[in-house]
From TrEMBL:
Organism encoding this protein: Eucalyptus grandis (Flooded gum)
Molecular-function annotations in GO: double-stranded DNA binding; miRNA binding; single-stranded DNA binding; single-stranded RNA binding; siRNA binding
PROSITE patterns on file: RRM
Lineage, highest ranks first: Eukaryota, Viridiplantae, Streptophyta, Embryophyta, Tracheophyta
Cross-referenced PANTHER family: HETEROGENEOUS NUCLEAR RIBONUCLEOPROTEIN 87F-RELATED (PTHR48027)
Protein name: RRM domain-containing protein
C-alpha cells in the first residue's frame, strides 16, 4: 500500500510542477534506478578508477568495467551503481559528455536487457550472453 501512495504522490507532484514529461522521469526514479551505464571509456580505465571518478556524487555501491572474456581487455563501457537515486541523477547530469582519462564518456541510466537469445552465440544456452542483466550484449558489435 505504501508503494501505491508513493506512486500517487510522485505523479501528482510531477504533473503539477512540470507536466507529463516530468511524470516519466518520476516513474523511472521510483524503481530505485541507481545503476548507470558509462560508455566511451578509455581502455585504461579499470573498476577502481571508474569508482573514483563517480564517488564525489555519492556512495558508489559497485563500479564495474566490462571486459572481453577471452582477452580480458576492456570493452570500453561499464556500470556504476549508487546507493541513492539522487546520487545517480547528479552523476548523470555532471558526467555525461565529460572527459575521463582522455575520452568523452556517455553516462545514462542503465536499462534492463531483455531476456532470450539475441541472434548471436552458439546454440543451446545462447553462448556469450553477459549475465549482469543490464544494458550490454556480449559478442559481436560491442553492444551499442
Amino acid at each position: 500500500m505504501a508503494f501505491y501512495n508513493k506512486v500517487g504522490n510522485l505523479l501528482k507532484q510531477s504533473l503539477s510542477q512540470n507536466g507529463p514529461a516530468s511524470m516519466l522521469n518520476s516513474i523511472r526514479f521510483m524503481g530505485s534506478q541507481s545503476k548507470l551505464f558509462v560508455g566511451g571509456l578509455s581502455y585504461g580505465t579499470d573498476d577502481h578508477s571508474l569508482k573514483d571518478a563517480f564517488s564525489s556524487f555519492g556512495e558508489v555501491v559497485e563500479a564495474r568495467v566490462i571486459t572481453d572474456r577471452d582477452s580480458g581487455r576492456s570493452r570500453g563501457f561499464g556500470f556504476v551503481s549508487f546507493s541513492s537515486d539522487e546520487s545517480a541523477s547528479s552523476a548523470v547530469s555532471a558526467m555525461d559528455g565529460q572527459d575521463l582519462q582522455g575520452r568523452n564518456i556517455r553516462v545514462s541510466y542503465a536499462t534492463e536487457r531483455p531476456s532470450g537469445n539475441r541472434g548471436f552465440g552458439g546454440g543451446g544456452g545462447g553462448g556469450g550472453n553477459y549475465s549482469g542483466g543490464y544494458g550490454s550484449r556480449a559478442g559481436g558489435d560491442g553492444g551499442f
